[in-house]
Amino acid sequence: MPPGCRSSHSEGMRARTPKTWVVVVALAMLVTSCSSSDDDGGGPGGAVPPSSTSSAEPRTATPLTGEDFVEAMARGGIETFAEASAMDPVVPAEAPGPMVLTAWQAETMQRQLAVGRGYLGRDLDAYTSEVAEGIPTSVVLAAWISAADTDAAAVARELMGERDYAHLALDIVYPDAVVALFVNDLARGGTEAMSGSATASPAAYVATAPATAAGICSDLVDFLSSSLDSVVQSLQVQVAEEGAAAILASIWNTVVSFAASAAEIAIGAFTSALIAPVTRAITLVAVLTEAASLLDPWSIATTVAPADSLGPSTDAVVTSDVQAALEFEWPADLKDCASTLSGVTLPDLGDVSGSPVTWTYVDPWQLTTQGDTDQALDQAGTARLRFATKPPQAGETDEASGSPVAYPLHVRTDAERTQVKKLTDLIADLLLGALPGPARAIVDTLLGPVKSATQAKLAALVSAQGKTLDIQLLRFQQNPDPVPPLVEECTVGSQTTVPDGTWKGPIVMSVKGQGLTGQAFSGGQGQLKMTVEDGKVKGGTWGVTWHSSGSSTEGGVTAEIEIDGEVGGGVKGSAAKPLVTGSWTISGTATVDIGGIGPLPLEFSGKASETMTIEEADCAELTGTFIPSFNAKGSPATFTGTARWTGTRVD
CA 198 to CA 143: how far, in whole Å? Predict the structure, then answer.
Protein backbone atom coordinates (compact mmCIF):
# COMPACT_ATOMS: atom_id res chain seq x y z
CA MET A 1 0.00 0.00 0.00
CA PRO A 2 1.46 3.39 -0.91
CA PRO A 3 2.55 5.59 1.99
CA GLY A 4 -0.11 8.12 2.84
CA CYS A 5 -2.98 5.59 2.47
CA ARG A 6 -4.23 4.08 5.72
CA SER A 7 -6.31 1.06 6.70
CA SER A 8 -6.85 0.03 10.29
CA HIS A 9 -7.12 -3.63 9.31
CA SER A 10 -4.35 -3.85 6.76
CA GLU A 11 -1.81 -5.89 8.72
CA GLY A 12 -4.21 -8.68 9.65
CA MET A 13 -5.73 -8.94 6.23
CA ARG A 14 -2.31 -9.01 4.55
CA ALA A 15 -1.23 -11.96 6.67
CA ARG A 16 -4.38 -13.97 6.01
CA THR A 17 -5.04 -13.36 2.33
CA PRO A 18 -2.13 -11.70 0.52
CA LYS A 19 -3.59 -12.06 -3.00
CA THR A 20 -6.94 -10.78 -1.84
CA TRP A 21 -5.41 -7.71 -0.29
CA VAL A 22 -3.38 -6.97 -3.42
CA VAL A 23 -6.64 -6.94 -5.39
CA VAL A 24 -8.36 -4.70 -2.87
CA VAL A 25 -5.46 -2.26 -2.69
CA ALA A 26 -5.18 -2.14 -6.47
CA LEU A 27 -8.86 -1.31 -6.75
CA ALA A 28 -8.72 1.22 -3.94
CA MET A 29 -5.89 2.99 -5.72
CA LEU A 30 -8.12 3.25 -8.76
CA VAL A 31 -10.74 4.99 -6.68
CA THR A 32 -8.46 7.22 -4.59
CA SER A 33 -5.17 7.23 -6.48
CA CYS A 34 -3.49 7.64 -3.08
CA SER A 35 -0.32 9.67 -3.36
CA SER A 36 2.94 9.03 -1.60
CA SER A 37 3.05 12.76 -0.91
CA ASP A 38 0.90 14.84 1.41
CA ASP A 39 1.92 17.95 -0.50
CA ASP A 40 -1.00 20.23 -1.23
CA GLY A 41 0.46 22.02 -4.18
CA GLY A 42 4.11 21.28 -4.77
CA GLY A 43 3.96 19.12 -7.87
CA PRO A 44 3.99 20.12 -11.51
CA GLY A 45 0.78 21.85 -12.38
CA GLY A 46 0.08 22.44 -8.71
CA ALA A 47 2.55 25.20 -8.02
CA VAL A 48 1.04 28.52 -7.05
CA PRO A 49 2.97 31.77 -7.39
CA PRO A 50 3.76 33.19 -3.99
CA SER A 51 2.22 36.53 -3.24
CA SER A 52 4.63 39.33 -3.98
CA THR A 53 4.88 42.74 -2.45
CA SER A 54 7.06 44.01 -5.28
CA SER A 55 5.48 46.23 -7.88
CA ALA A 56 5.60 45.48 -11.59
CA GLU A 57 6.59 49.11 -12.16
CA PRO A 58 10.33 49.88 -12.48
CA ARG A 59 12.02 51.50 -9.54
CA THR A 60 15.49 51.94 -8.11
CA ALA A 61 16.52 52.16 -4.48
CA THR A 62 17.53 55.81 -4.93
CA PRO A 63 17.19 58.03 -8.02
CA LEU A 64 20.40 58.15 -10.05
CA THR A 65 22.05 61.42 -10.96
CA GLY A 66 23.12 61.92 -14.55
CA GLU A 67 26.75 61.16 -13.64
CA ASP A 68 25.78 58.03 -11.72
CA PHE A 69 23.71 56.82 -14.65
CA VAL A 70 26.56 57.25 -17.15
CA GLU A 71 28.92 55.42 -14.79
CA ALA A 72 26.43 52.56 -14.31
CA MET A 73 25.93 52.15 -18.07
CA ALA A 74 29.72 52.04 -18.54
CA ARG A 75 29.95 49.24 -15.98
CA GLY A 76 27.39 47.41 -18.12
CA GLY A 77 29.45 47.92 -21.29
CA ILE A 78 27.71 50.94 -22.84
CA GLU A 79 29.87 54.04 -23.23
CA THR A 80 28.50 57.58 -23.39
CA PHE A 81 30.07 60.27 -25.58
CA ALA A 82 29.58 63.98 -24.85
CA GLU A 83 28.68 64.52 -28.51
CA ALA A 84 28.62 62.52 -31.70
CA SER A 85 32.03 63.71 -32.86
CA ALA A 86 33.80 63.06 -29.54
CA MET A 87 36.70 60.58 -29.63
CA ASP A 88 36.72 59.58 -25.95
CA PRO A 89 33.82 58.42 -23.79
CA VAL A 90 32.78 60.30 -20.69
CA VAL A 91 33.43 57.16 -18.62
CA PRO A 92 35.43 54.36 -20.30
CA ALA A 93 34.00 50.86 -20.12
CA GLU A 94 36.26 47.99 -19.18
CA ALA A 95 34.73 45.81 -21.91
CA PRO A 96 32.67 48.05 -24.21
CA GLY A 97 30.04 46.63 -26.49
CA PRO A 98 28.82 47.85 -29.86
CA MET A 99 26.07 50.12 -28.52
CA VAL A 100 27.03 53.68 -27.58
CA LEU A 101 25.08 56.75 -26.48
CA THR A 102 25.36 60.47 -26.86
CA ALA A 103 25.15 62.44 -23.63
CA TRP A 104 21.65 63.61 -24.43
CA GLN A 105 20.48 60.04 -25.17
CA ALA A 106 21.79 59.02 -21.76
CA GLU A 107 20.01 61.99 -20.20
CA THR A 108 16.73 60.94 -21.82
CA MET A 109 17.16 57.36 -20.56
CA GLN A 110 17.96 58.59 -17.05
CA ARG A 111 14.83 60.77 -16.94
CA GLN A 112 12.69 57.95 -18.28
CA LEU A 113 14.04 55.64 -15.59
CA ALA A 114 13.29 58.22 -12.90
CA VAL A 115 9.61 58.60 -13.87
CA GLY A 116 8.97 54.87 -14.29
CA ARG A 117 8.42 54.79 -18.05
CA GLY A 118 9.45 52.11 -20.51
CA TYR A 119 8.15 49.04 -22.29
CA LEU A 120 5.48 46.84 -20.72
CA GLY A 121 6.54 43.22 -21.17
CA ARG A 122 3.38 42.39 -23.11
CA ASP A 123 4.10 45.25 -25.51
CA LEU A 124 7.58 43.92 -26.23
CA ASP A 125 6.07 40.54 -27.00
CA ALA A 126 3.49 42.07 -29.33
CA TYR A 127 6.05 44.13 -31.28
CA THR A 128 8.39 41.18 -31.75
CA SER A 129 5.82 38.42 -32.23
CA GLU A 130 6.22 38.22 -36.01
CA VAL A 131 9.93 37.48 -35.79
CA ALA A 132 10.25 35.72 -32.41
CA GLU A 133 8.40 32.53 -33.44
CA GLY A 134 6.43 32.18 -30.23
CA ILE A 135 9.26 32.94 -27.81
CA PRO A 136 8.13 35.82 -25.53
CA THR A 137 10.80 38.52 -25.57
CA SER A 138 9.70 39.76 -22.15
CA VAL A 139 10.40 36.35 -20.63
CA VAL A 140 13.88 36.14 -22.17
CA LEU A 141 14.60 39.66 -20.91
CA ALA A 142 13.28 38.86 -17.42
CA ALA A 143 15.36 35.68 -17.28
CA TRP A 144 18.47 37.58 -18.36
CA ILE A 145 17.97 40.22 -15.65
CA SER A 146 17.29 37.57 -13.03
CA ALA A 147 19.88 34.92 -13.84
CA ALA A 148 22.58 36.07 -16.29
CA ASP A 149 26.09 36.14 -14.82
CA THR A 150 27.33 39.24 -16.65
CA ASP A 151 28.24 42.77 -15.63
CA ALA A 152 25.42 44.18 -17.76
CA ALA A 153 22.81 41.98 -16.08
CA ALA A 154 24.13 42.99 -12.66
CA VAL A 155 23.69 46.67 -13.55
CA ALA A 156 20.19 45.93 -14.87
CA ARG A 157 19.29 44.32 -11.53
CA GLU A 158 20.49 47.47 -9.75
CA LEU A 159 18.36 49.70 -11.97
CA MET A 160 15.23 47.54 -11.74
CA GLY A 161 15.22 46.73 -8.06
CA GLU A 162 13.65 43.58 -6.65
CA ARG A 163 10.98 41.99 -8.87
CA ASP A 164 8.90 38.85 -9.09
CA TYR A 165 10.24 38.03 -12.56
CA ALA A 166 9.03 34.43 -12.37
CA HIS A 167 5.37 35.41 -12.33
CA LEU A 168 5.19 39.03 -13.52
CA ALA A 169 7.55 39.03 -16.52
CA LEU A 170 4.76 40.13 -18.88
CA ASP A 171 3.53 42.88 -16.56
CA ILE A 172 6.83 44.48 -15.58
CA VAL A 173 7.84 47.79 -17.19
CA TYR A 174 11.35 47.62 -18.65
CA PRO A 175 13.01 51.04 -19.11
CA ASP A 176 15.10 51.77 -22.19
CA ALA A 177 18.32 51.71 -20.16
CA VAL A 178 17.72 48.09 -19.12
CA VAL A 179 16.68 47.04 -22.60
CA ALA A 180 19.81 48.70 -24.01
CA LEU A 181 22.02 46.79 -21.55
CA PHE A 182 20.31 43.56 -22.61
CA VAL A 183 20.78 44.25 -26.32
CA ASN A 184 24.39 45.29 -25.84
CA ASP A 185 25.19 42.24 -23.72
CA LEU A 186 23.92 39.81 -26.35
CA ALA A 187 25.54 41.76 -29.18
CA ARG A 188 28.87 42.21 -27.39
CA GLY A 189 29.90 38.57 -27.76
CA GLY A 190 28.91 38.48 -31.40
CA THR A 191 31.29 41.29 -32.35
CA GLU A 192 34.26 39.00 -31.78
CA ALA A 193 32.96 36.62 -34.42
CA MET A 194 32.67 39.29 -37.10
CA SER A 195 35.55 39.07 -39.56
CA GLY A 196 37.70 37.65 -36.80
CA SER A 197 38.01 40.94 -34.92
CA ALA A 198 36.05 43.43 -32.88
CA THR A 199 33.91 46.04 -34.61
CA ALA A 200 35.23 49.56 -34.77
CA SER A 201 33.57 51.96 -32.36
CA PRO A 202 31.17 54.59 -33.71
CA ALA A 203 33.58 57.28 -32.56
CA ALA A 204 36.35 55.77 -34.66
CA TYR A 205 33.93 55.43 -37.56
CA VAL A 206 33.10 59.13 -37.31
CA ALA A 207 36.76 60.10 -37.07
CA THR A 208 37.67 58.33 -40.32
CA ALA A 209 34.53 59.27 -42.24
CA PRO A 210 34.99 62.01 -44.87
CA ALA A 211 33.46 65.37 -44.01
CA THR A 212 30.25 66.28 -45.77
CA ALA A 213 28.23 69.42 -46.25
CA ALA A 214 25.82 68.27 -43.54
CA GLY A 215 28.47 68.94 -40.87
CA ILE A 216 27.32 68.02 -37.39
CA CYS A 217 24.29 66.26 -38.83
CA SER A 218 26.64 63.94 -40.69
CA ASP A 219 28.47 63.24 -37.42
CA LEU A 220 25.21 62.33 -35.73
CA VAL A 221 24.00 60.11 -38.58
CA ASP A 222 27.35 58.33 -38.71
CA PHE A 223 27.37 57.90 -34.94
CA LEU A 224 23.85 56.46 -34.74
CA SER A 225 24.02 54.32 -37.88
CA SER A 226 27.43 52.90 -36.99
CA SER A 227 26.26 51.98 -33.51
CA LEU A 228 23.10 50.34 -34.77
CA ASP A 229 24.95 48.66 -37.63
CA SER A 230 27.40 47.11 -35.16
CA VAL A 231 24.58 45.85 -32.96
CA VAL A 232 22.52 44.43 -35.81
CA GLN A 233 25.39 42.68 -37.56
CA SER A 234 26.81 41.20 -34.37
CA LEU A 235 23.41 39.81 -33.44
CA GLN A 236 23.24 38.01 -36.78
CA VAL A 237 26.71 36.42 -36.53
CA GLN A 238 26.55 33.69 -33.93
CA VAL A 239 28.86 30.79 -33.08
CA ALA A 240 27.40 27.81 -31.22
CA GLU A 241 29.13 28.50 -27.90
CA GLU A 242 30.04 32.16 -28.18
CA GLY A 243 28.35 35.52 -27.84
CA ALA A 244 24.59 35.61 -27.54
CA ALA A 245 24.35 31.82 -27.87
CA ALA A 246 26.42 31.32 -24.74
CA ILE A 247 24.40 33.84 -22.73
CA LEU A 248 21.07 32.42 -23.92
CA ALA A 249 22.18 28.87 -23.16
CA SER A 250 23.20 29.88 -19.64
CA ILE A 251 19.76 31.33 -18.84
CA TRP A 252 17.56 28.99 -20.88
CA ASN A 253 16.36 26.93 -17.93
CA THR A 254 15.24 30.18 -16.33
CA VAL A 255 13.51 31.22 -19.58
CA VAL A 256 11.59 27.94 -19.65
CA SER A 257 10.64 28.27 -15.99
CA PHE A 258 9.42 31.86 -16.41
CA ALA A 259 7.51 30.97 -19.57
CA ALA A 260 5.67 28.21 -17.74
CA SER A 261 4.59 30.50 -14.90
CA ALA A 262 4.47 34.06 -16.22
CA ALA A 263 3.60 33.46 -19.88
CA GLU A 264 1.85 30.14 -19.28
CA ILE A 265 3.39 28.55 -22.37
CA ALA A 266 5.83 25.70 -22.87
CA ILE A 267 9.19 26.36 -24.50
CA GLY A 268 11.35 23.47 -25.62
CA ALA A 269 14.94 22.82 -24.61
CA PHE A 270 17.55 25.27 -25.84
CA THR A 271 18.94 24.49 -29.29
CA SER A 272 20.82 26.47 -31.91
CA ALA A 273 17.55 26.76 -33.85
CA LEU A 274 16.22 29.09 -31.15
CA ILE A 275 19.08 31.55 -31.46
CA ALA A 276 17.77 33.03 -34.71
CA PRO A 277 14.24 34.04 -33.57
CA VAL A 278 15.54 35.44 -30.29
CA THR A 279 18.25 37.50 -31.95
CA ARG A 280 15.80 38.74 -34.60
CA ALA A 281 13.51 39.93 -31.82
CA ILE A 282 16.39 41.59 -29.98
CA THR A 283 17.43 43.32 -33.20
CA LEU A 284 13.99 44.88 -33.47
CA VAL A 285 14.10 45.87 -29.80
CA ALA A 286 17.50 47.51 -30.43
CA VAL A 287 15.97 49.73 -33.10
CA LEU A 288 13.06 50.70 -30.84
CA THR A 289 15.37 51.49 -27.94
CA GLU A 290 17.74 53.61 -30.02
CA ALA A 291 14.79 55.54 -31.41
CA ALA A 292 13.06 56.07 -28.08
CA SER A 293 16.24 57.43 -26.50
CA LEU A 294 16.21 60.28 -29.03
CA LEU A 295 12.83 61.58 -27.90
CA ASP A 296 12.22 63.53 -24.72
CA PRO A 297 9.51 62.04 -22.44
CA TRP A 298 6.92 64.14 -20.71
CA SER A 299 5.63 63.78 -17.16
CA ILE A 300 2.29 64.93 -15.76
CA ALA A 301 1.22 66.12 -12.31
CA THR A 302 -2.43 66.25 -11.24
CA THR A 303 -3.88 68.14 -8.25
CA VAL A 304 -7.35 68.99 -6.92
CA ALA A 305 -8.54 72.15 -5.21
CA PRO A 306 -9.85 72.36 -2.56
CA ALA A 307 -7.25 69.82 -1.51
CA ASP A 308 -9.11 68.51 1.56
CA SER A 309 -11.98 66.01 1.49
CA LEU A 310 -14.90 67.61 -0.29
CA GLY A 311 -18.28 68.02 1.40
CA PRO A 312 -21.67 68.59 -0.28
CA SER A 313 -22.30 71.65 -2.49
CA THR A 314 -18.61 72.28 -3.16
CA ASP A 315 -17.10 73.57 -6.41
CA ALA A 316 -13.75 71.96 -7.25
CA VAL A 317 -11.21 71.87 -10.06
CA VAL A 318 -8.71 69.20 -11.10
CA THR A 319 -5.57 70.70 -12.67
CA SER A 320 -3.11 68.67 -14.75
CA ASP A 321 0.28 70.14 -15.64
CA VAL A 322 2.41 68.52 -18.32
CA GLN A 323 6.11 69.04 -17.79
CA ALA A 324 8.86 68.47 -20.28
CA ALA A 325 12.26 67.63 -18.86
CA LEU A 326 13.69 70.54 -16.94
CA GLU A 327 16.68 72.30 -18.48
CA PHE A 328 16.56 70.10 -21.57
CA GLU A 329 17.04 71.44 -25.08
CA TRP A 330 17.16 69.61 -28.37
CA PRO A 331 20.88 69.16 -29.19
CA ALA A 332 22.23 71.25 -32.02
CA ASP A 333 23.08 68.22 -34.16
CA LEU A 334 19.52 66.87 -33.90
CA LYS A 335 18.09 70.27 -34.81
CA ASP A 336 20.46 70.42 -37.74
CA CYS A 337 19.47 66.94 -38.91
CA ALA A 338 15.79 67.74 -38.54
CA SER A 339 16.22 70.61 -40.97
CA THR A 340 18.72 68.94 -43.32
CA LEU A 341 17.22 65.47 -43.67
CA SER A 342 13.48 65.90 -43.54
CA GLY A 343 12.57 69.52 -43.11
CA VAL A 344 11.11 68.92 -39.65
CA THR A 345 11.34 71.75 -37.14
CA LEU A 346 11.59 70.21 -33.71
CA PRO A 347 8.93 71.55 -31.34
CA ASP A 348 9.89 73.85 -28.52
CA LEU A 349 9.91 71.69 -25.40
CA GLY A 350 8.12 74.46 -23.56
CA ASP A 351 5.42 74.68 -26.23
CA VAL A 352 2.90 72.00 -25.40
CA SER A 353 -0.20 74.00 -26.31
CA GLY A 354 -2.80 72.26 -28.40
CA SER A 355 -1.85 68.73 -27.35
CA PRO A 356 -5.05 66.65 -26.94
CA VAL A 357 -6.07 65.62 -23.43
CA THR A 358 -8.07 62.55 -22.44
CA TRP A 359 -9.79 62.53 -19.05
CA THR A 360 -10.90 59.47 -17.11
CA TYR A 361 -13.67 60.45 -14.67
CA VAL A 362 -15.18 57.72 -12.49
CA ASP A 363 -17.87 58.67 -9.94
CA PRO A 364 -19.34 55.30 -8.90
CA TRP A 365 -21.71 56.84 -6.31
CA GLN A 366 -22.88 59.65 -8.63
CA LEU A 367 -22.30 62.31 -5.99
CA THR A 368 -20.83 64.91 -8.37
CA THR A 369 -21.68 66.81 -11.52
CA GLN A 370 -18.90 67.24 -14.08
CA GLY A 371 -18.53 70.76 -15.45
CA ASP A 372 -16.32 72.44 -18.05
CA THR A 373 -13.47 70.19 -19.13
CA ASP A 374 -10.46 71.20 -21.24
CA GLN A 375 -9.82 68.97 -24.23
CA ALA A 376 -6.31 70.29 -24.95
CA LEU A 377 -3.35 71.77 -23.10
CA ASP A 378 -2.97 75.54 -22.97
CA GLN A 379 0.26 77.43 -23.54
CA ALA A 380 1.40 76.71 -20.00
CA GLY A 381 0.88 72.95 -20.51
CA THR A 382 -2.17 72.92 -18.25
CA ALA A 383 -5.63 71.39 -18.60
CA ARG A 384 -8.49 71.64 -16.11
CA LEU A 385 -11.60 69.66 -15.25
CA ARG A 386 -14.25 71.34 -13.10
CA PHE A 387 -16.87 69.55 -11.05
CA ALA A 388 -19.23 70.18 -8.16
CA THR A 389 -20.41 67.90 -5.41
CA LYS A 390 -24.17 67.57 -5.15
CA PRO A 391 -26.23 69.01 -2.24
CA PRO A 392 -27.11 66.71 0.67
CA GLN A 393 -29.18 63.75 -0.47
CA ALA A 394 -32.09 62.03 1.29
CA GLY A 395 -31.06 60.76 4.71
CA GLU A 396 -28.05 63.09 4.93
CA THR A 397 -27.48 66.01 7.28
CA ASP A 398 -24.84 68.67 7.88
CA GLU A 399 -21.39 68.41 9.37
CA ALA A 400 -22.53 69.65 12.78
CA SER A 401 -25.13 66.95 13.36
CA GLY A 402 -23.82 64.03 11.33
CA SER A 403 -20.85 61.70 11.04
CA PRO A 404 -18.67 61.80 7.91
CA VAL A 405 -18.66 58.93 5.43
CA ALA A 406 -16.07 59.05 2.61
CA TYR A 407 -16.90 58.06 -0.97
CA PRO A 408 -14.28 57.92 -3.76
CA LEU A 409 -14.04 59.88 -7.00
CA HIS A 410 -11.28 58.87 -9.46
CA VAL A 411 -9.81 61.25 -12.04
CA ARG A 412 -6.88 60.68 -14.41
CA THR A 413 -5.38 62.73 -17.25
CA ASP A 414 -3.52 61.48 -20.34
CA ALA A 415 -1.99 63.97 -22.81
CA GLU A 416 -1.08 63.11 -26.38
CA ARG A 417 2.06 64.74 -27.71
CA THR A 418 1.85 66.90 -30.82
CA GLN A 419 4.07 66.33 -33.86
CA VAL A 420 4.92 62.78 -32.79
CA LYS A 421 4.44 61.50 -36.33
CA LYS A 422 6.99 64.00 -37.67
CA LEU A 423 9.37 63.23 -34.84
CA THR A 424 9.23 59.48 -35.41
CA ASP A 425 9.66 59.96 -39.16
CA LEU A 426 12.77 61.99 -38.41
CA ILE A 427 14.10 59.27 -36.13
CA ALA A 428 13.50 56.66 -38.84
CA ASP A 429 15.48 58.77 -41.28
CA LEU A 430 18.31 59.26 -38.81
CA LEU A 431 18.57 55.60 -37.84
CA LEU A 432 17.82 53.90 -41.12
CA GLY A 433 18.59 56.40 -43.84
CA ALA A 434 22.35 55.99 -43.56
CA LEU A 435 22.44 52.41 -42.31
CA PRO A 436 24.90 50.53 -44.51
CA GLY A 437 24.91 47.18 -46.23
CA PRO A 438 23.61 43.99 -44.59
CA ALA A 439 22.33 45.74 -41.47
CA ARG A 440 19.98 47.93 -43.54
CA ALA A 441 18.47 44.89 -45.22
CA ILE A 442 18.00 43.16 -41.88
CA VAL A 443 16.37 46.16 -40.23
CA ASP A 444 14.16 46.88 -43.26
CA THR A 445 12.94 43.28 -43.11
CA LEU A 446 12.28 43.48 -39.39
CA LEU A 447 10.54 46.84 -39.42
CA GLY A 448 8.57 46.27 -42.59
CA PRO A 449 5.54 44.46 -41.10
CA VAL A 450 5.50 46.46 -37.85
CA LYS A 451 6.43 50.00 -38.86
CA SER A 452 3.08 51.46 -37.87
CA ALA A 453 3.14 49.59 -34.57
CA THR A 454 6.65 50.88 -33.92
CA GLN A 455 5.58 54.46 -34.49
CA ALA A 456 2.53 53.96 -32.27
CA LYS A 457 4.78 52.65 -29.50
CA LEU A 458 7.17 55.58 -29.84
CA ALA A 459 4.20 57.94 -29.68
CA ALA A 460 3.06 56.28 -26.46
CA LEU A 461 6.54 56.46 -24.96
CA VAL A 462 6.71 60.24 -25.35
CA SER A 463 3.11 60.94 -24.38
CA ALA A 464 2.11 61.97 -20.86
CA GLN A 465 0.25 59.42 -18.76
CA GLY A 466 -0.99 60.63 -15.40
CA LYS A 467 -1.66 58.64 -12.26
CA THR A 468 -5.20 58.23 -11.00
CA LEU A 469 -6.16 60.87 -8.43
CA ASP A 470 -8.27 59.46 -5.59
CA ILE A 471 -10.57 62.27 -4.40
CA GLN A 472 -12.55 61.75 -1.19
CA LEU A 473 -16.16 62.97 -1.15
CA LEU A 474 -17.68 63.42 2.33
CA ARG A 475 -21.35 62.94 3.13
CA PHE A 476 -22.73 63.45 6.64
CA GLN A 477 -25.21 60.98 8.12
CA GLN A 478 -26.70 60.23 11.49
CA ASN A 479 -25.70 56.74 12.67
CA PRO A 480 -24.21 55.90 9.27
CA ASP A 481 -23.77 52.38 8.06
CA PRO A 482 -20.39 51.45 6.55
CA VAL A 483 -20.12 52.19 2.85
CA PRO A 484 -21.28 49.02 1.10
CA PRO A 485 -18.98 47.60 -1.57
CA LEU A 486 -19.87 48.47 -5.12
CA VAL A 487 -20.59 45.79 -7.64
CA GLU A 488 -17.89 46.68 -10.11
CA GLU A 489 -18.40 46.29 -13.80
CA CYS A 490 -17.23 42.95 -15.03
CA THR A 491 -14.32 42.94 -17.47
CA VAL A 492 -13.43 39.74 -19.27
CA GLY A 493 -9.70 39.73 -19.89
CA SER A 494 -9.80 36.26 -21.45
CA GLN A 495 -12.47 33.69 -22.16
CA THR A 496 -10.38 31.18 -20.18
CA THR A 497 -9.82 33.38 -17.13
CA VAL A 498 -12.20 34.01 -14.22
CA PRO A 499 -13.23 37.71 -14.26
CA ASP A 500 -12.99 39.74 -11.06
CA GLY A 501 -15.90 39.19 -8.66
CA THR A 502 -17.35 36.47 -6.45
CA TRP A 503 -18.45 33.29 -8.23
CA LYS A 504 -20.50 30.40 -6.88
CA GLY A 505 -22.05 27.28 -8.32
CA PRO A 506 -22.40 23.47 -8.36
CA ILE A 507 -19.80 20.83 -9.15
CA VAL A 508 -20.87 17.67 -10.99
CA MET A 509 -18.33 14.83 -10.94
CA SER A 510 -18.12 11.81 -13.26
CA VAL A 511 -14.78 9.98 -13.40
CA LYS A 512 -13.62 6.56 -14.57
CA GLY A 513 -10.37 4.98 -13.36
CA GLN A 514 -8.69 2.30 -15.48
CA GLY A 515 -5.51 0.37 -14.87
CA LEU A 516 -3.72 -2.15 -12.70
CA THR A 517 -6.18 -5.06 -12.46
CA GLY A 518 -9.57 -3.42 -12.69
CA GLN A 519 -11.65 -0.33 -13.13
CA ALA A 520 -13.80 1.94 -10.98
CA PHE A 521 -16.50 4.54 -11.57
CA SER A 522 -16.94 7.63 -9.38
CA GLY A 523 -19.84 10.06 -9.41
CA GLY A 524 -20.75 12.91 -7.09
CA GLN A 525 -21.64 16.54 -6.64
CA GLY A 526 -20.70 19.57 -4.57
CA GLN A 527 -20.29 23.35 -4.48
CA LEU A 528 -17.44 25.80 -5.11
CA LYS A 529 -17.20 29.52 -4.35
CA MET A 530 -14.27 31.81 -5.08
CA THR A 531 -13.49 35.53 -5.07
CA VAL A 532 -11.18 36.98 -7.72
CA GLU A 533 -9.57 40.42 -7.59
CA ASP A 534 -7.03 41.85 -10.05
CA GLY A 535 -6.56 38.48 -11.69
CA LYS A 536 -5.78 36.68 -8.41
CA VAL A 537 -7.93 34.31 -6.35
CA LYS A 538 -8.32 36.07 -3.01
CA GLY A 539 -10.15 33.21 -1.33
CA GLY A 540 -12.62 30.41 -1.79
CA THR A 541 -14.08 27.17 -0.53
CA TRP A 542 -15.19 23.99 -2.22
CA GLY A 543 -16.39 20.49 -1.45
CA VAL A 544 -17.50 17.34 -3.26
CA THR A 545 -19.03 14.10 -2.00
CA TRP A 546 -18.98 11.07 -4.25
CA HIS A 547 -19.59 7.33 -4.47
CA SER A 548 -17.26 4.88 -6.21
CA SER A 549 -17.88 1.31 -7.29
CA GLY A 550 -15.76 -1.12 -9.26
CA SER A 551 -14.17 -4.52 -9.54
CA SER A 552 -10.66 -5.95 -9.78
CA THR A 553 -9.24 -9.41 -10.50
CA GLU A 554 -5.81 -10.78 -9.62
CA GLY A 555 -4.76 -14.43 -9.74
CA GLY A 556 -8.33 -15.63 -10.08
CA VAL A 557 -9.47 -13.64 -7.05
CA THR A 558 -12.14 -10.99 -7.69
CA ALA A 559 -13.09 -8.12 -5.40
CA GLU A 560 -16.09 -5.80 -5.62
CA ILE A 561 -15.65 -2.44 -3.95
CA GLU A 562 -18.09 0.26 -2.76
CA ILE A 563 -16.67 3.48 -1.36
CA ASP A 564 -18.09 6.82 -0.24
CA GLY A 565 -15.79 9.81 -0.17
CA GLU A 566 -15.62 13.50 0.41
CA VAL A 567 -13.01 16.10 -0.49
CA GLY A 568 -12.82 19.85 0.03
CA GLY A 569 -10.80 22.82 1.11
CA GLY A 570 -9.76 26.17 -0.31
CA VAL A 571 -9.00 27.88 -3.61
CA LYS A 572 -5.95 30.00 -4.44
CA GLY A 573 -3.64 30.93 -7.31
CA SER A 574 -4.29 32.89 -10.48
CA ALA A 575 -7.63 33.57 -12.14
CA ALA A 576 -6.39 31.75 -15.23
CA LYS A 577 -5.44 28.59 -13.32
CA PRO A 578 -7.16 28.40 -9.93
CA LEU A 579 -5.75 25.73 -7.63
CA VAL A 580 -8.24 23.77 -5.51
CA THR A 581 -6.59 22.33 -2.41
CA GLY A 582 -7.80 20.43 0.61
CA SER A 583 -8.20 17.04 2.28
CA TRP A 584 -10.07 13.91 1.28
CA THR A 585 -11.39 10.92 3.19
CA ILE A 586 -13.02 7.71 1.98
CA SER A 587 -14.66 4.78 3.71
CA GLY A 588 -16.28 1.64 2.39
CA THR A 589 -16.00 -2.11 1.96
CA ALA A 590 -14.57 -4.66 -0.44
CA THR A 591 -16.34 -8.00 -0.99
CA VAL A 592 -14.03 -10.84 -2.09
CA ASP A 593 -15.20 -14.05 -3.83
CA ILE A 594 -13.33 -16.40 -1.48
CA GLY A 595 -15.41 -18.33 0.99
CA GLY A 596 -15.12 -17.50 4.61
CA ILE A 597 -13.96 -13.91 4.15
CA GLY A 598 -16.42 -11.21 5.05
CA PRO A 599 -16.49 -7.65 3.73
CA LEU A 600 -13.18 -5.89 4.25
CA PRO A 601 -13.41 -2.39 5.74
CA LEU A 602 -11.57 0.37 3.86
CA GLU A 603 -10.53 3.74 5.25
CA PHE A 604 -8.18 6.14 3.53
CA SER A 605 -7.33 9.83 3.85
CA GLY A 606 -4.92 12.33 2.42
CA LYS A 607 -4.48 15.74 0.86
CA ALA A 608 -5.49 16.82 -2.62
CA SER A 609 -4.55 19.59 -5.02
CA GLU A 610 -5.58 20.06 -8.63
CA THR A 611 -5.34 22.92 -11.10
CA MET A 612 -8.68 23.92 -12.58
CA THR A 613 -8.97 24.53 -16.30
CA ILE A 614 -11.31 27.41 -17.12
CA GLU A 615 -13.12 26.27 -20.25
CA GLU A 616 -15.22 29.34 -20.92
CA ALA A 617 -16.01 32.56 -19.04
CA ASP A 618 -18.05 35.69 -19.46
CA CYS A 619 -19.49 38.25 -17.05
CA ALA A 620 -22.48 36.08 -16.12
CA GLU A 621 -21.32 32.46 -16.07
CA LEU A 622 -18.24 30.30 -16.41
CA THR A 623 -17.26 26.63 -16.45
CA GLY A 624 -14.11 24.99 -15.10
CA THR A 625 -12.95 21.38 -14.86
CA PHE A 626 -10.66 19.35 -12.60
CA ILE A 627 -10.48 15.87 -11.05
CA PRO A 628 -10.84 16.01 -7.24
CA SER A 629 -8.26 13.99 -5.28
CA PHE A 630 -6.96 12.03 -8.24
CA ASN A 631 -3.53 13.58 -8.15
CA ALA A 632 -1.24 10.64 -7.44
CA LYS A 633 2.38 10.95 -8.48
CA GLY A 634 3.52 7.94 -10.46
CA SER A 635 0.26 6.03 -10.25
CA PRO A 636 -0.16 3.42 -13.02
CA ALA A 637 -3.87 4.22 -13.15
CA THR A 638 -5.35 6.55 -15.74
CA PHE A 639 -8.48 8.64 -15.32
CA THR A 640 -11.03 9.94 -17.77
CA GLY A 641 -13.96 12.23 -17.16
CA THR A 642 -13.95 15.25 -14.92
CA ALA A 643 -15.56 17.33 -12.21
CA ARG A 644 -17.20 20.31 -13.91
CA TRP A 645 -17.93 23.51 -12.00
CA THR A 646 -20.53 25.94 -13.32
CA GLY A 647 -20.17 29.27 -11.57
CA THR A 648 -22.34 32.36 -11.68
CA ARG A 649 -21.31 35.85 -10.53
CA VAL A 650 -23.00 36.70 -7.24
CA ASP A 651 -21.47 40.18 -6.76
Answer: 27
